[in-house]
Amino acid sequence: MAVSRRILGIGGSLLMILACILYIVSNAVPIWGTVKVGQATNTIGLWQGCISIPGYTQCSALVCLLPGSTPCIKNGAARAFVTLACIFSAVAALCLLASAILTDVSKLLAMMVKIVPFSSLLVGVIGVGVGINLVTYKTVFSIGAAAIVGILALILNLAGTILAFLIQ
To answer: Average pLDDT in the 70-78 region?
Structure first.
């Protein structure tokens, strides 16, 4: 027995909404990488870095001192691709929901139901991968909670994309 388009569309839409929320959290939280030095804990995210000592935390925006340097380029790429993953996953959720609600689905919507979730997955893999590489390659930082949230977003995005491709 084939699973109905409505069930697959709603399930895929829910997964893409959850992926979108996790991408947003991952993008915003400054804990892509962490390192503990004595009593201080340093964390770095895509947009800001923080230093914490017991009873005090100070965060500031990340500024590239050498704009053409590899870390600045990686940071810009990670920011851009994770932000695109946020947008594409939200659009994918809307497309999947529309395909579940509408009785007569146009060819354009049927095509978008497959292309947009896959595009979200693709830019998410690039963004999360570059972000993890940024904070762990040749640094003392270890992977942080925001990077793990990004990985969870990728898993949900993959599941939503699979459901989208199962829709007839």
So the answer is: 91
